[in-house]
Amino acid sequence: MALTAYERGLLAVQRRDLEAGRALLEEAGDHAAALLLLGQIGSDPACYERAAALGSATAAYNLGAVAANEERYTDALRWYARSAELGDTGALRMLGAMHATGQGTAADDAEAERLWLAAAGAGDTQALLDLGVLHLHHRDDPVTGTSWLLQAAKPVRRRLLAPRRLRRPGRPGPGAAVVPEDARRGQRRRHPRGPEDRPPDDGRRDPRGRPPGGQDPRRRGLHRPAPRHP
User: How far apart are CA 95 and CA 101, in angstroms?
Assistant: First the structure.
């Protein structure tokens, strides 16, 4: 199956070939994802606007973020509201923050709480933290505030307590130094094993008449001849 212009453009961008990627994405025309990516690689609000008009929640959110950073708070509210309508829970949370701080609108804790509750109900963990801060520092309600913060901490706690796969014994962990086999053999050879490695014979003998070092002490008693049977 042949790849579309958007798919080929996406692959080019992933290869860091931005010029080829831009040309292919422009060839895709009125494709929401292609226009969103064009806006991301070129910081072009016009591409974001076209993508948002085609239903891209992320493009509308990005327009809200650009406007907020430029202190155009009325435009930011409008684009965040559009993104929230398209299903972006992060936009709901940002709308709550703007109502809480009075950016682009009158400060309204009740509206901020309503928006944060909606975002939290849709799975936005950061909104749980915002609710906790609202109750702790603005409503002097430590019980409710702490409850929201504990709920926000649950996903982190689950990740920390999740069982981890144990590493099989004998395998070095990540970052461990790998010792070559020859070096490992050398580490095990704590005593001479061959004639060329034995110390010079100085005439001394053990009780069995052998020079020192003539036998590996680790092997002593392990390889005795088995008794013979008739």
Answer: 10
